[in-house]
Amino acid sequence: MHIVQPGMELDVLKENSKIANANYRLMKEHGIKSVDFMGSIGAGKTALIIKLAEKLRSKGVRVCAIAGDVTGADDYTRFEKSGLEAVNCSTGHECHLDANLVSKTLSKINLDDYDVIFIENVGNLVCPADFPLGTDYRVVVISTTEGDDMVRKHHDIFLHSDIAILNKIDIADAVDVDPEVIAGDYRKLTGGIKDIYKCSVKRDQGLDEILAAMKL
Ligand code: MG
Ligand code: ZN
User: Is the pTM of this model over 0.85?
Assistant: First the structure.
């Protein structure tokens, strides 16, 4: 939860962006490219990261994942089971990762061992937007199961992201959602210059395009 006292919020955000810059520099010094995956619980962030990492690993790219969760280690366990090396990062009570938590987690990783770090943020479409972590790309993941109004309801996180992904297009009909409505909302929000990436992690559709968008 956010506990923000009057006048504190700006300081908190300023401090966060200072540490985010340091995270960015540290990863660059080690030749690491990094991506922050934001999105609701159930959007498919964990599965998406696993699939993207598999594709990269098959090309010899060394990938590590940071699993951000309020408590527990479920995503971390899924990463490890898939063969993806991962580090757990529990936020305690916070509903988002911040640059300081990521900084502490980076200190536990041997950065020379990796080319790419994928960070799974806490499942939440609101406050992760306010806390850049120092990654090359910020990505927001939604799925058709969340309805067709996610872009209209959550402008901020879409505007704060470099790449937007609509997952589970294979079941759009079954949940009565038209992906084109979501795509249209996103296009409009971004002034007609950006398209949402449509994919199905389950059916391995649209994932190469997403890697290309991250220049990976
Ligand atoms: Mg997850
Ligand atoms: Zn939060």
Answer: yes
